[in-house]
Amino acid sequence: MGLGCMRSSSRAGIAFSLTIVAVAVGLHLPLGARQPDSEQDLLARFEREQKPVKKSIYATRLAQLKLQQATDAYAKDDLDQGQKLLDEYLKWVKSSWDLLKSSGRPAERKPQGFKELDIALREDVRHFGDLEHRVPFTDREPVTKAAQEAEKIRGEVLAVLFPTGESGAGNKSGGPGSKPAPPPHFRSNRGYGPRSSAEHENNHTTALSPVGEGRPLQAVG
């Protein structure tokens, strides 16, 4: 009886210690390791924010959240919900871009907001490439259109970030007035033709990676 009580007390002590450690670690989490903002929190911040650049960053985050929700809906074969969420994704992308354009901020010298939108859209375009190949051909049109619109807006963002056509990777042919090279995407593998049953089965068994996985959200303000 006494030995059982001692073991019980020992387990309770270990559990209590682990709880204290977990709380201590949680209080000292680095910014990049924080829990992602909820949709309600982002919406509230978007509505409160008055500065267009910071407001655009919240819109960009909401766009990526909607794209992930759309991906989850398509994974469950909920095509109507997926299409609805893609429409909401584009609404937030366009809102972010409109806010940046109206800010009067020189993107080439002060890229905050523009840079976040460019990075997000670059990731989104790659994500659309995966999503397109996992949606049946007959239901793929909304995904393709959303991908094309995201790519178009990213081209406009790059044009103001690099007005001479010289991106970070360098554009040897770029000179004054030249256009930036189109962003890398899934043109070569878009696969509009019918797929074999083996390919179809393989695509449906491959998991999609979350939007923006591996990149921590930057703090605003």
Produce the secondary structure layout:
Blueprint: H1 2-27, H2 39-48, H3 52-75, H4 79-102, H5 114-132, H6 141-161, H7 197-205
From the N-terminal CA to the C-terminal CA, the straight-line distance is 59 Å
- Rg, please? 23 Å
Summed up, the helix count is: 7
Total tally of structural domains: 1
- Based on secondary structure, the structural category is mainly alpha
Oligomeric state, counting identical vs distinct chains: single chain
Give a short account of the largest sheet.
none
Strand content: under 5%
SSE pattern:
HHHHHHH
**What coarse outline follows from CA principal-axis ratios?**
globular
The parts where pLDDT drops under 50 for at least 5 residues are: 5-33, 169-207
What is the residue-mean pLDDT, rounded to a whole number? 74
What is the percent of helical residues?
55-70%
Total count of strands: 0
Structure overview:
The protein has helices at residues 2-27, 39-48, 52-75, 79-102, 114-132, 141-161, 197-205. α5 runs antiparallel to α6 (141-161). The chain is built from seven helices and no strands. The longest helix is centred in the first third of the chain and has 26 residues, at 2-27. It has one domain (43-205). It is globular and about 45 Å long. It has 221 residues and is mainly α. Helices cover 60% and strands 0% of the residues.
Can you summarize this structure?
The chain is mainly α. Helix content is 60%, strand content 0%.
